[in-house]
Specification:
- By secondary structure, the protein is α+β, with helices and mostly antiparallel strands.
- It has one domain: 3-Layer(aba) Sandwich (Beta-lactamase), CATH 3.40.710.10.
- The protein is 38% helix and 16% strand.
- Strands 1, 2, 9, 10, 11, 12, 13, 14 and 15 form a nine-stranded antiparallel beta sheet that branches. It has a three-stranded mixed beta sheet with strand order 7-6-16. The protein has a two-stranded antiparallel sheet with strand order 3-8.
- Strand 1 and strand 2 form a beta hairpin.
- Helix 3 packs parallel to helix 9.
- It is globular.
- The N and C termini lie far apart (52 Å).
Length: 400
C-alpha cells in the first residue's frame, strides 16, 4: 500500500504566507506613474474583442499587483440580453494540463518517479504496436509533447457537424478507450533523444491521458484526487472542480457557442459530458482561481526550485502552432511567448468547441490576465483573427 504524506496545517500556512508575499512583492511601487486600469477601460477592451471576433460573449480579468479589474461584454445567453456575470465559471479545457503537470512534478520532487522513467516502466505493455514504443517514451516526453504520440482530439468523438455534436454531447467515453484508439495510429515522429537541443514537437492530448494513468499507478489513487488534494484544496480554489461526466456548469456562467462547418447558426455547447477529456482538459474553474494557481506555481509556492526550473525549460512549438501563436515555446505543461515589452508571458491555452481560454502571467507574478470567449468558428481565417486579437490584448495588459 502506498502511503502519501498530506500537507500539514503548518505547510498550508506556509503556502498562504508565500502567496501573500508573492502578491505583496508584485504590487506596484509608489513611483509607478501609469494610472491603474479602470473597469470602464476594460469594458471597452472587452467590447473591442467582441466586435473583432464576432463572438457571443467575452470576459476579461486583469491583475496588476493587488489591483484587480474584470469586465464582460456581449450576452451570457444568446438572445436574452443577459450580461456576462462577474467571476463566471467556465470549462478551462487544456489549462487542465498545467495542474496535472504540477502534480507529476510534485511526485518527482518526492522521488516517487523520475522524469527519465519510461511509460513502459509504469504502464507495462500499454503503449505498443503500430510503431508506438513505450520503452522509448519518458515522462518528460509526455509532459512536453515531444513523444510523437498521435493526438486524439474531441472532434474524433463528437464529429465535425452540429448534428454530430448533438448526437454525441452526452456520450461517456473513458480515457482508456481514447488511449487505445490513439495507439491504433502510428506516431508522428520518434520520441526525442535525451539531450536533443532541438526536439520535434507535436501537441498530444494522448500523452496527458497517459499521465493520468501514470499518476494513478504511482500513487494508488485517481489522478483527480491527487490534483484536488495537492493543488485545488491546498490553494483554496473554491470555484474549481473536476466534474467527471457531470455535463452541467454550476454557479454563474456564460454559455458557449460553436458555429460548426456547414452550419449557418450557433450551436450551444455549454451542456456536455467532458469526462473523456480527463487529465487533458476536463477542469472547470474561474479566472481568479487560475490566477491564484499560476501565481503560486510561477513564484515557487507549489514546486521546489529544481522542478520549477524543469517545468520552465522550453522547446519551440511546431509550425502549425507558430502560425497562431508566434514565438510559442512549451515547457512541462506550461506555455511561454515573448512579450513586446521584453521578457515572456507564461500560462496555458484552452480550446474547446465554442470557447477560447487565454491566460498570461508575468514570470514574477506581478501581473496576470485571463480571457474567456464564448463563440467559436471552424473558419481558419476567423480563428487567426481571434487569436491575434486575444494575444494583442494580453500583451497590452501585461506590458501596461
Amino acid at each position: 500500500m502506498t502511503v502519501r504524506l498530506r500537507p500539514t496545517a503548518v505547510a498550508t500556512a506556509s503556502l498562504a504566507l508565500a502567496l501573500a508575499l508573492a502578491l505583496a512583492l508584485a504590487a506596484p511601487s509608489s513611483g509607478t506613474t501609469a494610472p491603474p486600469l479602470t473597469p470602464e477601460r476594460l469594458r471597452h477592451e472587452a467590447g473591442r474583442v467582441l466586435e473583432t471576433t464576432g463572438a457571443v460573449n467575452v470576459h476579461i480579468r486583469v491583475r496588476d499587483g493587488r489591483h484587480v479589474v474584470e469586465a464582460g461584454a456581449g450576452e451570457a445567453v444568446l438572445g436574452t440580453g443577459r450580461p456576462v456575470p462577474d467571476s463566471p465559471r467556465f470549462r478551462a479545457a487544456s489549462v487542465t494540463k498545467s495542474l496535472v503537470a504540477a502534480t507529476v512534478l510534485q511526485l518527482a520532487a518526492e522521488k516517487r518517479l523520475s522524469l527519465r522513467d519510461t511509460v513502459e516502466h509504469w504502464l507495462p505493455g500499454l503503449v505498443q504496436g503500430h510503431g508506438n514504443d513505450g520503452s522509448r517514451i519518458t515522462v518528460r516526453h509526455l509532459l512536453q509533447h515531444t513523444s510523437g504520440l498521435y493526438d486524439y482530439d474531441s472532434t474524433e468523438l463528437t464529429g465535425k457537424t452540429a448534428p454530430d455534436f448533438e448526437r454525441h454531447r452526452f456520450d461517456r467515453v473513458t480515457t482508456e478507450q481514447l488511449i487505445a484508439a490513439a495507439l491504433r495510429h502510428p506516431p508522428e515522429f520518434p520520441p526525442a533523444d535525451p539531450g536533443d537541443p532541438h526536439p520535434r514537437w507535436s501537441y498530444s492530448n494522448t500523452g496527458y491521458f497517459l499521465l493520468g494513468a501514470l499518476i494513478e499507478r504511482v500513487t494508488g489513487r485517481p489522478w483527480e484526487r491527487e490534483v484536488r488534494d495537492r493543488t485545488v484544496r491546498r490553494l483554496g480554489l473554491s470555484g474549481t472542480r473536476l466534474p467527471g461526466d457531470d455535463p452541467y456548469l454550476t454557479g454563474p456562467h456564460a454559455h458557449t457557442y460553436h458555429r460548426f462547418a456547414g452550419s449557418g447558426h450557433w450551436t450551444d455547447t455549454t451542456v456536455r459530458a467532458m469526462g473523456w477529456a480527463g487529465p487533458a482538459g476536463s477542469l472547470v474553474s474561474t479566472s481568479a482561481d487560475l490566477d491564484r494557481f499560476f501565481t503560486a506555481l510561477l513564484t515557487g509556492a507549489l514546486l521546489p526550485p529544481r522542478e520549477l526550473a524543469a517545468m520552465r525549460t522550453t522547446v519551440p512549438s511546431n509550425e502549425e502552432h507558430q502560425q497562431f501563436t508566434p514565438g510559442m515555446r512549451y515547457g512541462l505543461g506550461l506555455m511561454s511567448q515573448p512579450l513586446p515589452c521584453g521578457g515572456s508571458r507564461w500560462g496555458h491555452h484552452g480550446d474547446l468547441e465554442g470557447t477560447f481560454v487565454r491566460t498570461g502571467f508575468a514570470a514574477d507574478g506581478s501581473r496576470s490576465v485571463v480571457i474567456t470567449v464564448g463563440g467559436r468558428t471552424t473558419d481558419d481565417a476567423q480563428l487567426l483573427t481571434t487569436e491575434r486579437a486575444l494575444q494583442r490584448l494580453v500583451d497590452r495588459m501585461l506590458c501596461g
